[in-house]
Amino acid sequence: MKRIAVIGAGKWGSALAFALGQNPENEVVITSRHPRDVPNFVDLETALQREYLVMAIPAQQVGAWLKEHFRYRDQKVLVAAKGIEASTGRFLNEIFAPYVPDQNIAFLSGPSFAAEVIQGLPTALVVSSADAQTAMGFAEAFPEFIRTYSDDDIAGAEVCGSYKNVIAIAAGICAGLKLGNNAAAALISRGLIEMRRFGLAYGARDETFLGLSGAGDLFLTASSVLSRNYRVGLGLAEGKAKEQIVEELGEVAEGIGTAYALHGIAQRSGVYLPIATEVYEILEGKAPRESLNDLLTR
Ligand SMILES: NC(=O)C1=CN([C@@H]2O[C@H](COP(=O)(O)OP(=O)(O)OC[C@H]3O[C@@H](n4cnc5c(N)ncnc54)[C@H](O)[C@@H]3O)[C@@H](O)[C@H]2O)C=CC1
Ligand SMILES: O=C(CO)COP(=O)(O)O
């Protein structure tokens, strides 16, 4: 029996708790900063005693959360968030490194809308860890409707999971401006190339970008209104400010923070990130049509 605690009861944490609960080999509890009226809800201290932790707190908040609440007790940790910390440019593996040893941590990626997982719809995910046993331990915890693969390309999982959210914002802008399917396809394919170029510089493996974590999650997120990031793009195309969009969304859209993080990385390192940079400029108020036309005619 795997005793699992999901930390963070938002859309993704709730969906993961549901999915993992479908496997009779697991005993799953969930916790969050606001008590929830769900049968498996426990307080944070109880949750942190569990052997397996699934972290579903957004990337922009998890660093502060770890500092305030986390105490390592040999737990195995699965990081389910996707994003790069805007304030520091840190990836999630860097944020968690001071708290959890490499052999006890894994990262979840792949095309997976929470809204479909919670319906038990077929899904495929990747569990990446430096330790094969840790990756397998989490991969086999998922129920049959979720096909899991395991690998050790943490850099690839992280770059794909975070960067695709920024491309999804750009795709939402493209759709909102009614630039057409040709433009959308050009944008998404160039977004994959940009994400791959950035990821290779971070030590990611090439094949990861054509797999579930890369192309799979990018195509999913950059082509559906189920994506919060895609919906951010639609709002930007309407001329709304990001603050209003986030308020109306009522859920996290990690692509915003990651766009700021990527802009900072590009400024510091000189790496060429045209789409991420244009998304940052539009989030900062640049006219979307001018920006996307620049991008597509460059
Ligand atoms: N929703 C989805 O379809 C998927 C989401 N993800 C990722 O999962 C992560 C979480 O996303 P969602 O659950 O969808 O977002 P959400 O907006 O539905 O929920 C976020 C949750 O984090 C909690 N939270 C925020 N700040 C916190 C803090 N400082 N301390 C404790 N809890 C805090 C909130 O209370 C909320 O319950 C994100 O990184 C997202 O990219 C990954 C795959 C699918
Ligand atoms: O990561 C996701 C799907 O794989 C969820 O995407 P959004 O955060 O854009 O909704």
Describe the structure.
The protein has 14 helices and 7 strands. The protein has 298 residues and is α/β, with parallel strands linked by helices. Helix 7 packs parallel to helix 9. A 7-stranded mixed β-sheet has the order 2-1-3-4-5-6-7, sandwiched between helices. The model has no long low-confidence stretch (mean pLDDT 97). 1,4-dihydronicotinamide adenine dinucleotide binds next to helix 1 and helix 3. Pathway: Membrane lipid metabolism; glycerophospholipid metabolism. GO terms for molecular function: glycerol-3-phosphate dehydrogenase [NAD(P)+] activity. It is an enzyme of class 1 (oxidoreductase).
Annotate the secondary structure layout:
Blueprint: E1 2-7, H1 11-21, E2 26-31, H2 44-47, E3 52-55, H3 59-69, E4 76-79, H4 92-96, E5 105-109, H5 114-117, E6 123-129, H6 132-139, E7 146-151, H7 154-176, H8 181-201, H9 212-221, H10 228-237, H11 242-249, H12 254-269, H13 274-283, H14 288-297
Parallel strand pairs: 1-2, 1-3, 3-4, 4-5, 6-7
Antiparallel strand pairs: 5-6
Helix pairs in contact: 7-8, 7-9, 7-10, 7-12, 7-13, 8-9, 10-11, 12-13, 13-14
This protein binds 1,4-dihydronicotinamide adenine dinucleotide and 1,3-dihydroxyacetonephosphate (13P).
